Amino acid sequence: MSPSDAADRPAPPDRMFDREAEWDDLLRFVCDTRRGATLGLVSGQRRYGKTYLLEAMVKATGGFYFDGQAAAEAESLRRLADRLAEHTRAPQPPRWHRWEDALDALLALGDEGPVPVVIDDFPDLVGQSPALPAVIHSAYRRLRTERPENRTRLILSGGIPSIVTRLFSGPSSLHDLAGLELAVRPFDFRTAARFWGIDDPRLAVQVHAVVGGTPAYRGDFVCDDAPAGPDDFDAWVCRTALNPRVPLFWEARHLLEEEADHADRALCHSVLVAIASGCATRGEITDCVAGSLNDVSHVLVVMQNRGLLHGEPDAFRPGLTRYRIAEPLLAFEHAVAWPHRVALEQEDVAEAWRRARRVFDAAVVAPHFAQLCRNWVLGFAAPDTFGGAPEEAVRGTVPDPARHTRLDVDVAVRGMTDGRPGVLLSLGLARWNETMGADHLDHLRHIRSVLAASGEDTSQALPACYSATGFTPELHAAAARNEVLLIDADRLYGGE
């Protein structure tokens, strides 16, 4: 089968949702009949569906799958030998004492034709056997010299893409051998709404602010319990995210325990609470937790490297990094559940949620809605929406010397126009529970004038208002005159 014979490749499982592109990439790699062993690297954090995708591919193609665990090297080799013997129907498993011997046996599976061999959670194995990447690198060099007809399609799978990248770099870099590098990511906000069966945009924003785009949360963690409609959202939160009898209730703490070192865990919690309460810069976070700048900086780096935080430069002060929580469930936990833990455990959950609802709207949904607006700019806006191709959509702060204050921009869009990179294309404000009007447009015009006075080229900067509630007639009239761009929740989820 050649790489182009797509019609002959196995179809994805019926239960697979919106992973057609990843499935096609995997099948194109493992079904390639050209001679020579190849190597693929697949990354994706837990709960995103990476393992399900790989197991389904192996089942469809008759390949071999092994799930690595954080166990002693001898135990891992025994488990692998048992699995291989079961796969090959050997009378008894081999007895390996070195990874070199195990790799030779695995790679021999491809001597007769293309065979996918998957080692999942590969970093857990490397934790106990640090030389394993170098062993694989050496095995491939030997294989390509001694058995060039071998067609093993070895896939090493790991968690966070940044960690996988570092793990596979170095003197014997596996990246140099890789013919496939695939990252399995969470669903974008539009796909997540379809996955949850939600067609009301405001409800979709609220649900996404709790569970994000993680596929596993609907099935394994809430037993397929989705809100029946906008009026069911509060009850849904109480019976899922705030219900100790449901796995989703405990998931945020498990995420932190899996990714944070024990010594840093308490400070990680405090940092996440600070960010969830509105602190965004290193200095603001340090002041909030009353900690050491060095300790906080270390924790920020650890959590960013492990995919728990995103750090982004300010749109107008590139030297200033602003942090946000990457996983919505962590933001929900540390803004709502964590500060109200005693009330949730000792009182009626519905009453505790009623009191926490205002915090949820202000500290969770409002900033999350602003982030979805930035995601919309980069992922869904039409090419001509901003008069240029958007390359960046981030938050920004503008000092206002005349008023001795700071002006916040929720969606600052930069891009390419007339061959000039980094041009400011738009200044935007995002409001979750506020009908926007002429005063918001006036505020954006003032920000634009302050930027222009500071030397920023604002000639292309279109004011933009993003609202989940709507706009006044005056603002609609201004939009008709092309003075402002209006993006409501319907456009966020269905328009360009």
Give a structural overview.
This is ArsR family transcriptional regulator. This protein is of the alpha/beta class and 496 residues long. The chain has three domains: 6-183, 3-Layer(aba) Sandwich (Rossmann fold); 190-372, Arc Repressor Mutant, subunit A (Orthogonal Bundle), CATH 1.10.10.10; 380-494, 3-Layer(aba) Sandwich (Trna Endonuclease, Chain: A, domain 1), CATH 3.40.1350.10. Helices cover 46% and strands 17% of the residues. The chain is built from 21 helices and twelve strands. It has helices spanning 20-30, 50-61, 73-88, 99-107, 122-128, 132-146, 161-167, 189-195, 201-211, 216-219, 233-239, 247-259, 265-276, 282-289, 293-305, 328-337, 341-346, 349-379, 438-453, 473-480, 489-494, and strands at 38-43, 64-67, 115-120, 152-158, 178-183, 309-313, 321-325, 389-400, 405-417, 420-431, 462-467, 485-488. The strands form three sheets. Strands 2-3-4-1-5 form a five-stranded parallel sheet, with helices on both faces. Strands 8-9-10-11-12 form a five-stranded mixed sheet, with helices on both faces. Strand 11 (462-467), helix 20 (473-480) and strand 12 form a beta-alpha-beta unit. Helix 11 crosses helix 18. The longest helix is centred in the C-terminal third of the chain and has 31 residues, at 349-379. The protein is globular and about 80 Å long. It starts with 19 loop residues before the first helix and ends with a helix. The relative contact order is 0.07. The mean pLDDT is 92.
